[in-house]
Amino acid sequence: MKRNNLLKHLRFNGCYLKREGASHSLWCNPQTGHSEAVPRHTEIPNRLAKKICRASFNKKKSDNVLEVLGDIKALHPVPKARALFVSAISV
After folding, report:
1. Following CA atoms 83, 87, 88, 90 in sequence, which dihedral angle do they give, to the nearest 10 degrees?
2. Would you tell me which of 28, 43, 45, 78 could form a disulfide with 18, CB atoms 3.0–4.6 Å apart?
3. Domains, the chain, with CATH or none
4. Distance from first CA to last CA of the chain, Å, rounded?
5. CA angle centred on 44, ends 38 and 49, rounded to 5°
6. CA separation for the pair 46, 91 (Å, rounded)
7. Does the structure show a pLDDT above 50 at 63?
8. pLDDT tens across 21-48, in order?
9. Taking a C-beta distance cutoff of 8 angstroms, is the pair 3, 38 a contact?
């Protein structure tokens, strides 16, 4: 895959260039907070391009935990004394 095509795909899906390195560019997805290194070769192997896309667009495991905690809080109201403890854990 051409590097330009991969970068267009990343930009189209909301990623942005975080910084330039010596031999790689670091691209970040603001939705997941994940950064991924993209090599500066004109041709990038398809397998590596798939790995970069898969890693960039998967949700972080901590996001899933926070969603579950949010669902639990909605279903079972927590007393005020315990609410501070639960919010400190989720941060």
Report:
1. 140
2. 28
3. 3-58 (3.30.920.30), 60-91 (no CATH)
4. 40
5. 65
6. 37
7. no
8. 889 999 999 888 889 999 999 999 999 9
9. yes
